[in-house]
């Protein structure tokens, strides 16, 4: 049931694998020559696969920041990833072997380039933004460190859902947007048509669009010039008190958390005592530098500059994206709009062997050190024993974390169905519930609960018009509301020969964390693109479904579902359960229930032990007696017996959910 999405390289990188990439200690770079007027801070924003990494590589190459040979090496790795992705393996499934190599690429993504124009050295800071909706909050924060953005659109694919969402974020932040059409070398490229599409979607003047091939390098020098000419320089003063904006971080196993910062005012150097505005924690700066593209120590960082600091932060969760750092004892006004990352998808993680819990917990803790966005709480279940309840930014984040636990920490685990945080409104208070076992039961709902609300998202789907009906069905079957649509353009794109439609609607987040994405891709033959943003909470008729084995509920299987789906889900799950639970000596009813109402039932047949096997010849009476005794025994066992659901059966049911 989980979403299996292709994981863009940079999303993996966003989780910052913990190997230090410093190959040698370069000498310190002096940064004072770079005043604000020769600094440009920008991002590349694009839909997945439209060529962000390739363009970043070309820019680094053109400015001499990396050698062509190194690019070749990176490309090899990227190509390898793509091969795996094309085979249908998510990027998250990449072998642990590749991860340290990936780290090397990551560092090239937020990078400072030195470029001379008319004999004056400029510093161009390319600031990385994550490429996936799970991290949209971080996109917005990374863009807060920029004054401009390159909006990259694939000339054969045209504008996609994510192009629109990132464009809006950049526009809201007041960034100067440079429109760029990429992949014009492709035979399927339609630069004129896509330029018109950009004009109608973004209000872009076609004359401003730069046409390039990031692959061959054609037109990339024009992009470099436009960065200098069109993007305004940052502002700031060395005289004002220190104020630095924390926009990203990664974990280094030797130095702890390394934070990427944009200095707004003042000067930041080694030995400074600084404090976080939001956590009030104090640190001493042990190193400052720029990403060039690897960490290159600098004497100091000045206003407008972007670089890294190490300051003995021990855990990634201390580095709050969007935080403001200031000199300890001299607070400043913080950067506006800070809010801590919020978990939107929760799941319980348990070891397959209960005895392995200490090992699992240790691995989770170690991974969480490197991943600032995951939340961890202990959880215990009667069925699965001791485990942890983890909160993730989204299902992709969850998949990556799970995969890392399995690959890097060799953990054999059971992960429960993902849930979202529901809001239970009582007469006098509101409670957020992210664990189905804590969801109020039917009696409580009818007597004490005023309302139940669920998180919803505003979704956009872009799709060729022949798939429009299927997409409408998909949205309705996932409880979509407020559907509206419009034509994006008319004519032909890429391999599809129809007009494209953009469809917007409100969808419950819980519907997206199940099979929505897979269905979207299969029902549109892969042509639909999809993006969403949080849209608050809405009242909903939700119920808790429990599964009973021999009339006893199995806590780890509880689900929160919409009442309209109780039949469908109840039947589906009992059918699955009957297949994975081993037969007992007695018949076992497997039931799905909502409150006192049984929604669905299957019966697990007893296996028949041959109790008369040792009796030969004419012992008919004894045989009958043995069978009677066995029957009675079974009746008693059934009355008293609890059916153990073995961990393997959980594992099986959870993985069939993943596949369904
Ligand atoms: N023909 C052609 N292919 C390109 C061009 N730019 C990028 N590509 C290819 O398009 C694919 C995607 O490029 P990436 O640079 O990885 O795209 P991205 O936007 O960084 O992708 P994610 O990391 O998944 O977000 C790769 O196979 C590139 O080689 C181009 O100008 N022309």
UniProtKB/TrEMBL annotation:
SUPFAM superfamilies: EF-G C-terminal domain-like, P-loop containing nucleoside triphosphate hydrolases. It catalyses: GTP + H2O = GDP + phosphate + H(+). InterPro entries: EF-4 (IPR006297), EFG_III/V (IPR035647), EFG_V-like (IPR000640), EFTu-like_2 (IPR004161), LepA_C_sf (IPR038363), LepA_CTD (IPR013842), LepA_IV (IPR035654), P-loop_NTPase (IPR027417). The keyword Membrane applies. It comes from the Eukaryota. GO terms for biological process: positive regulation of translation; translation. It is a peripheral membrane protein. GO terms for cellular component: mitochondrial inner membrane; mitochondrial matrix. One of its GO terms (molecular function) is GTP binding. Transmembrane segments: none annotated. Residues 37-235 form the Tr-type G domain. Its main location: mitochondrion. It is found in: Mitochondrion inner membrane. GTP binds at residues 46-53, 128-132, 182-185. Signal peptide: none annotated. Keywords: GTP-binding, Hydrolase, Membrane, Mitochondrion, Mitochondrion inner membrane, Nucleotide-binding, Protein biosynthesis. Belongs to the GTP-binding elongation factor family. LepA subfamily. Promotes mitochondrial protein synthesis. May act as a fidelity factor of the translation reaction, by catalyzing a one-codon backward translocation of tRNAs on improperly translocated ribosomes. Binds to mitochondrial ribosomes in a GTP-dependent manner. PANTHER family: TRANSLATION FACTOR GUF1, MITOCHONDRIAL, TRANSLATION FACTOR GUF1-RELATED. This is Translation factor GUF1, mitochondrial. It comes from Mycena indigotica.
């Amino acid at each position: 049931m989980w979403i299996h999405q292709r994981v863009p390289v940079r999303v993996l990188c966003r989780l910052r694998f913990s190997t230090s990439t410093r190959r040698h200690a370069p000498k310190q770079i002096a940064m004072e020559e770079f005043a604000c007027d020769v600094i440009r801070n920008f991002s590349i924003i694009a839909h997945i696969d439209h060529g962000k990494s390739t363009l970043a590589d070309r820019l680094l190459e053109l400015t001499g920041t990396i050698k062509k040979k190194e690019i070749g090496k990176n490309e090899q790795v990227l190509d390898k990833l793509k091969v795996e992705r094309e085979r249908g393996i998510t990027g998250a499934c990449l072998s642990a072997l590749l991860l340290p190599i990936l780290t090397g690429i990551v560092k090239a993504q937020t990078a400072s380039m030195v470029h001379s124009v008319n004999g004056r050295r400029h510093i161009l800071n390319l600031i990385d933004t994550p490429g996936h909706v799970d991290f949209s909050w971080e996109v917005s924060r990374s863009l807060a460190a920029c004054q401009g953005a390159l909006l990259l659109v694939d000339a054969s694919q045209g504008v996609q859902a994510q192009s629109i969402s990132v464009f809006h974020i950049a526009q809201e932040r007041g960034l100067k947007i440079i429109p760029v059409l990429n992949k014009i070398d492709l035979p399927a490229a339609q630069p004129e048509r896509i330029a018109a599409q950009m004009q109608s979607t973004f209000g872009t003047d076609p004359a401003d669009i730069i046409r390039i091939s990031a692959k061959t390098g054609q037109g990339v020098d024009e992009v470099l010039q436009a960065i200098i000419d069109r993007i305004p320089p940052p502002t700031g003063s060395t005289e004002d008190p220190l104020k630095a904006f924390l926009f990203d971080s990664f974990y280094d196993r030797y130095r702890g958390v390394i934070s990427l910062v944009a200095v707004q005012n003042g000067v930041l150097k080694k030995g400074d005592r600084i404090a976080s505005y939001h956590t009030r924690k104090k640190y001493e700066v042990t190193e400052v530098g720029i990403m060039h593209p690897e960490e290159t120590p600098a004497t100091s960082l000045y206003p407008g500059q972007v670089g890294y600091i190490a300051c003995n932060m021990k855990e990634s969760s201390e580095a709050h994206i969007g935080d403001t750092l200031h000199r300890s004892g001299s607070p400043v006004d913080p950067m506006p709009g800070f809010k801590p990352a919020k978990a939107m998808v929760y799941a319980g993680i348990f070891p397959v062997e209960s005895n392995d819990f200490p090992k699992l917990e240790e691995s989770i803790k170690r991974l969480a050190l490197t991943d600032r966005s995951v939340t961890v709480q202990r959880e215990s279940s009667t069925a699965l024993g001791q485990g942890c309840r983890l909160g993730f930014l989204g299902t992709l984040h969850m998949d990556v974390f799970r995969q890392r636990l399995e690959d890097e920490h060799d953990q054999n685990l059971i992960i429960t169905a993902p849930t979202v945080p529901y809001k239970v409104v009582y007469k006098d208070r509101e409670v957020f519930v992210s664990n189905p076992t804590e969801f109020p039961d039917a009696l409580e709902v009818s007597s004490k609960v005023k309302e139940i609300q669920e998180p919803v998202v505003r979704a956009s789907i872009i799709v060729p018009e022949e798939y429009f009906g299927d997409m409408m069905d998909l949205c309705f079957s996932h409880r979509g509301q407020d559907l509206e649509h419009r034509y994006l353009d008319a004519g032909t794109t890429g391999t599809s020969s129809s007009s494209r439609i953009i469809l917007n609607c409100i969808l419950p987040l819980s519907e997206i964390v199940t099979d929505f994405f897979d269905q979207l891709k299969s029902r549109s033959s892969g042509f639909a693109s999809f993006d969403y943003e949080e849209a608050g909470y809405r009242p909903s008729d939700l119920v808790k479904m429990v599964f009973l084995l021999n009339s006893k509920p199995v806590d780890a299987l509880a689900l929160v579902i919409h009442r309209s789906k109780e039949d469908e889900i109840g039947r589906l799950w009992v059918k699955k359960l009957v297949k994975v639970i081993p037969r007992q000596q007695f018949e076992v009813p497997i039931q799905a229930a909502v409150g006192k109402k049984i929604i669905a039932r299957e019966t697990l047949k007893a296996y028949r032990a041959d109790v008369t096997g040792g009796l030969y010849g004419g012992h008919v009476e004894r045989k009958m007696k043995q069978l009677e005794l066995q029957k009675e025994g079974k009746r008693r066992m059934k009355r008293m017996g609890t059916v153990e659901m073995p961990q393997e059966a959980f594992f099986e049911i959870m993985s069939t959910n993943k596949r369904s």
